[in-house]
Amino acid sequence: MTRIPHETSGEPNPLQVLSYDFLRKRTSVKWRTYPEDVLPLWVAEMDVPLAEPVVRAVTDALHLGDTGYAAGTAYAEALAAFAGKRWGWEGLAVERSAIVPDVMLGVVEMLKLVTGPGDTVVVNPPVYPPFYLFAAHMDRRVAEAPLGADGRIDPEVLEASFRQAVAGGRRAAYLLCNPHNPTGTVHTEEELSAVAGLAERYGVRVVADEIHAPLVLGGPGFVPYLSVPGAERGLSLMSASKGWNLPGLKAAVAVAGPGAAADLDRMPEEVGHGPSHVAVIAHTAALRDGVTWLDALLAGLDGNRRLLAGLLAEHLPAIRYRPGDATYLAWLDCRALGLGDDPADVFLHRGRVALSSGLPFGTGGTGHARLNLATSQEVLVEAVRRMTAALR
Fold it and tell me: If you ran DSSP here, which 8-state letter would residue 173 be given?
């Protein structure tokens, strides 16, 4: 699989366009959960204007009154074209795809196809907290296969979890986060091939949440799970939501490997009634025409992660931070600060900075916090200043 390097973008850095006062006018969960004196660097929303092609596509739809029900394969076609150019992956087959309401609801539907009540879903903590919540709500058991000390998948630990999950002849699934949230780890082709081999050996079905795939900042390129040998029975969920800041415009694409096409065909028809038609229009425009905007964003995020690393080294050297190669999330190991199990709570109440608590991320989350660095450099500087002051 040949990966195409990112092209240089002539667009301005989207993270440096909007003033903080302008952003405070927003009414989403990021801006309304905490009082106005709190810097909100927690939930996965970005402080950016939307890409112009997205604004234009949605505005045109509203002018037309094109606000009916979603139809067609334009989204999947745009995603397939993006995958071919961006990741060198020509294997995204539109005929083996379906539109779903969003990635997590798509995950739920995929897990329903390959497991039943009481079956086990394996996850790699520390990991996105809804993995636990949605699986438990479906009456599935969650089994942890913690990441290694290097933040990468540990094949021996994963194999032990798979073996236990299928004991007694039960079905099991592995919910893979690729790239990984919160660490920003980009799984390699070798690692994913090993996962596929283990999954086939133990009969575990892999469902990959690949929502952060467009946000690979540097280093190794993104490898779609379905592109690796042995992953033919896998299922993937992809979306433009995270890459282009569209979480309020809900839509995603479920993709099946060749050996999972029959499973996807069993998905109930009513699931396809959930996606927003306007969201599908927005996501399609982002993938087709918003790549230069994305490249400008990635350059800005790369600058921010280097800025954050420097600020922490200077002002909070006890915090361990290993910049990831993907996402706009920073996983902070605060255990050496002596702030207890939940340092985010201390930074909120003493420093007026809202970070995500590490506790809901499962094993490995104690003493950690997740910081959203998809903001201006000025806000990052102020956040670290407040965090430093919180320790005095």
Answer: E
Contacts for 45 with CB less than 8 Å, ≥ 6 apart: 28, 29, 30, 245, 247, 372, 374
Say if residues 271 and 249 touch (Cβ distance below 8 Å): no
CA atoms within 13 A on the CB side of 121: 31
Q: Say whether pLDDT at 2 is over 70.
A: no
CA distance 211 to 127: 14
d(CA 13, CA 323): 20
The confidence score (pLDDT) of residue 10 equals 77
Alpha-helix residue ranges (DSSP H) falling in the chain: 20-23, 29-32, 52-64, 74-87, 103-114, 130-137, 155-165, 189-202, 261-265, 277-289, 291-315, 343-351, 377-389
- Note the helical H segments in 141-245: 155-165, 189-202
Percent of the chain with pLDDT over 70: 98
Please report the sign of the dihedral spanned by the C-alpha atoms of residue 123, residue 108, residue 354, residue 305.
positive
| Distance separating alpha carbons of residues 230 and 275, to the nearest angstrom | 31
pTM of the predicted model over 0.85: yes
pLDDT in tens, 57-113: 999 999 999 999 999 999 999 999 999 999 999 999 999 999 999 999 999 999 999
Q: For position 219, what pLDDT does the model report?
A: 74
Q: Would you state the structure tokens that stand for residue 313, as one six-digit string?
A: 């080294």
Continuous H helices in 52-101? 52-64, 74-87
Measured CA to CA, the distance from residue 371 to residue 119 in angstroms comes to 33
Distance of alpha carbon 179 from alpha carbon 42, whole angstroms: 19
Query: E strand or H helix at 141, and its extent?
Result: strand 141-144
How many other C-beta atoms lie within 10 A of the C-beta of residue 225? 25
Distance CA 340, CA 361 (A): 16
Q: Which two tokens mark 199? A: 């999954």
Q: Which is nearest to 203 in space by CA: 165, 235, 237, 177?
A: 165
Q: Buried (b) or exposed (e) across 91-110, using 16+ Cβ within 10 A? A: bbeeebbbbbbbbbbbbbbb
What's the maximum distance between 2 C-alpha atoms anywhere in the chain?
60
